[in-house]
């Protein structure tokens, strides 16, 4: 009389395949979480760059430069800015000054996590005749 083997357990090969599938699923989940965290960090930096650019644009509106104005420098936390204002004469008396603010930031040292982003705002402001 022949006995049937007990089929209630897993074979070694089936167990190894299950571990490989579980490992691949964990790698995919880890990668998705890492990419999401990196995207959130970049979005925060871009929001900070936009806030700084809006602040610089507001100060240029208050200053209302009457000639060609270019200024650039560091704004802290890795931000670099460049402000440009060029005066244009309006036909009916009130000169207009187009103002462009660019705030760029970079981080890292050329590694895989390094990056560069920028924000540019443009506005036209009226300058009192004088």
What do you see in this structure?
This protein is an alpha+beta fold and 130 residues long. The protein is 40% helix and 30% strand. It has one helix spanning 12-63; strands at residues 69-76, 79-85, 96-107, 115-126. The chain starts with 11 loop residues before the first helix and ends with a strand.
Outline the secondary-structure elements.
Layout: H1 12-63, E1 69-76, E2 79-85, E3 96-107, E4 115-126
Task: Give short descriptive properties of this protein.
alpha+beta; 4-stranded antiparallel β-sheet; 4 strands; 130 residues; 1 helix
Task: Name the poorly predicted regions.
Answer: none
Give a short account of the largest sheet: 4 strands, antiparallel
> In terms of quaternary structure, what is this?
single chain
Share of residues in helices: 40-55%
Number of helices: 1
What gap, in angstroms, lies between the N and C termini? 115 Å
What's the short story on this structure?
The protein has 130 residues and is α+β, with helices and mostly antiparallel strands.
